[in-house]
Amino acid sequence: MIALPRRLRAPLALFALPMLALPVAAQTAPPPKGLTLDRVVVLMRHGVRAPLDGEVPHGTRTAKPWPTWTTPESELTPHGAEALAVEARADRTDWIARGLLTRNCPAPGSIRIWTNSSSRTIASGEAYAKAFAPGCTVPVAHNPPGQVDPLFEPLRARATRFDAQAAVADIDRFTGGMDALVARNRPALRLLDQVLGCGEPRGCDPAGPARLTPSADGHGIDLTGPIRTASGTAQVLLLQYAEGLSPSVGGLPVDGAVLARLGTVHAALFDVYSRSPYMAAHQSAAFGRHMIAALTGKNGAKVDMLVGHDTNVTALAALLGFDLVAPGYATNDAAPGGAILIERWHDARGRAFVTVRYRTQSPDQIRAHAAAVSVKPVRVRGCPADAPCPLDQFVRLFRDRLAPLAG
């Protein structure tokens, strides 16, 4: 068990949750030959939510008004909860087929769910738990609502010895600099102008110069420019499409293919905030230790789930060395309700191994209430390309890539 400092501990002895990756009524992917699944550790993004205040920046111009949401700002929508229910049922079906779970109510302590303290993550965990085992007790735990949780927001919580100057330097190395990042995404930025349809030669997005600087308090980073402003607009277009609202704001019609192209702008935001080696190490520092403990603890839950945000999911993928690739999304644009599944197996001799998968629903599937999910096996950098990774090897490389905790 890897001990977190007392102030960073989330009750690991709580409740764990399931996650899978396939159509609900589809065939289950065959398990690795000769191995038995005995534990799954999950990191999942919350489900479809209403836009955040200012997510579409003030001054963004459109040909027609944005559609009206009936769900309050930033909250999980009923439609989003239904999509999470699909994923929960699919996960349980998969885990029963693989012998991890039975069809009975989960035993107390066998399913642990810990969410961030925002209302949308709490509601996402509850929606998942309710659908995962209807009529059964699957507790969902979290810090008091609104209290910063270092597992999910380590920079705000000052959980690591974060050096903003070092972060900016590493991000610039990783991206080639903010001007280069904008240049690579110029086609998607032009497409966004076509979708917004404002018809102004200067464009529809109110972006200024692209700059990345340490935050004033030195405990974070500040980004300005087209990626900062357009990424939120692109995400809102995806969310309103997935929600089933009118996808058009008067310009180029929006469909799944257009959304995937626009998603490269949202994914570029994570190149800044979570995917460079320095940022991935710090963003993952606390929840990574939680996941290692859940994976290796002697009497751990069969399913241990964390429910957080896109920044968490993209950071973990970057830390482990793989891209988030899923139907309907740009590469490294985290799906609402998407989850990274770390699966522990053992052989007849008791040796332990790990495989990793990424489970999602596409925007079209979420919009249509489709009873299907998709799953993609991924290779962890430093693990075998064509075989499960020995547990001790996986834990060592995972731990070695995490930034030290403060205090």
UniProtKB/TrEMBL annotation:
Q: Which organism is it from?
A: Sphingomonas parapaucimobilis NBRC 15100
Q: Which UniProt keywords apply?
A: Signal
The record's section on InterPro entries has: Acid_Pase_AS (IPR033379), His_Pase_clade-2 (IPR000560), His_PPase_superfam (IPR029033)
Name of the protein this chain belongs to:
Glucose-1-phosphatase
- Look up the signal peptide feature and give its range: 1-26
A Pfam family annotated for this UniProt entry: His_Phos_2
Query: Where is the segment annotated Disordered?
Result: 53-72
Source taxon at top rank = Bacteria
